[in-house]
Every structure is written in C-alpha cells, then in structure tokens.
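Complex record, two chains
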Amino acid sequence: GAVVSQHPSRVICKSGTSVKIECRSLDFQATTMFWYRQFPKQSLMLMATSNEGSKATYEQGVEKDKFLINHASLTLSTLTVTSAHPEDSSFYICSARQGSTDTQYFGPGTRLTVL
Amino acid sequence: QKEVEQDPGPLSVPEGAIVSLNCTYSNSAFQYFMWYRQYSRKGPELLMYTYSSGNKEDGRFTAQVDKSSKYISLFIRDSQPSDSATYLCAMSTGRGSTLGRLYFGRGTQLTVWP
C-alpha cells in the first residue's frame, strides 16, 4: 500500500514552454501533498504544501506564479512550471501525507531538463 | 545551524558489515522520526517510522531515537550491496502550523561492496 505515482518521469522542453507534472496517490486519499525540488547530491528542498480544495502554501523564495500548484482531488496534485528556463532544470518529487500521521510517501520523481 | 544535521559521507563498507547512520537535531518539538532510502534518480522510500523515543526493529533495520540527546540512528545489519543508496533522516513536530512538514537531513551516501 501507500503508493504514489508521478507522471511524466522525464521531460525535456524548450525554454519558454510550460510543463505540467502530475502526482497521484494510488491507494489512499491524501488531503495534503508536498512538492520538493532536489539538486544533485543535495537533500530535498520543500517548495510548497498543497491541501485539497485550497490554495497551496509556498516556501519562502519559491515563486508561486512560476510554480503553479493545483490539488483538485484527494488523489491528485499537479505542478506546472510556467515559462521554464534552463535554471528550472531539476529533479521534482512529490509526496502525499497519509491520514493523520506525519508519514509521507514519495513519488518516483520527475527529471525536468529545459534546453 | 540547520535544524537537522546529517553527515553526508560517503560511507563505504564491505558486505555483511553493520552500518550505523546518525542524525542530530536542535528542535525539541520534533516527535516523529523517519528514515528514507533513496536510490539514484528515484524518489525516497520510507524505511522506518518512529514516534518519540525508543527502538524499532524491522528485519535487518533498527531505528533508535534518543530525544534527551536529540540524536537518532539507523542500524543496518548484514549489509548487502542492494543497500547501497542515500539514506535520509526526516522528522516533524506533528502539530500546529507545521503539521505534516518534514525536516530532512542532507542524506548519507552508503556503498556496500561485495
């Protein structure tokens, strides 16, 4: 149980385009999902917390107009990188919080490369 | 000072060795402690989840939490090459405005050679 999927696993796009990444909890309902960014050999950097049916809470320094988050249902959250630039190239990982615990289950990640 | 400190390694051990991974933290409000394993280019996988102080064992893995010292450990017995990965400690307060938010260590890169 507690499986989280992410799609796509890898995307390459041109500078200036927008990219949407989906995060789904497959066998449980997640009222809260999180989006992280990870640079090579670095730990996870929390970008935003997404609660179903409400606006996402962004961490300091994360541009909410650039990284649009939608948590439309209890099993789906999306991250859209708008007008992507090469510096947005990174590994993006989502997680879903299960129930009332603080346990988070992570998706497999999405490798974004902006040319 | 970061809230969670973890030696990034790298740590290299022979197959069969006992591995000890550690994290220290500064926030006494942390109550939930987790260890995640992350293979290269993959998302983290939850290994152990512990509430408050004490030990928890699951197969070859043992997690220890010492809240008085603000110190947590993960022990891997009879280590295998398949255990080669980055191990991340994470913790949370479990309440208030930070409910659900995890604070991560940098991760320790482990290599188990045959």
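Note: Chain B has a mean pLDDT of 91.
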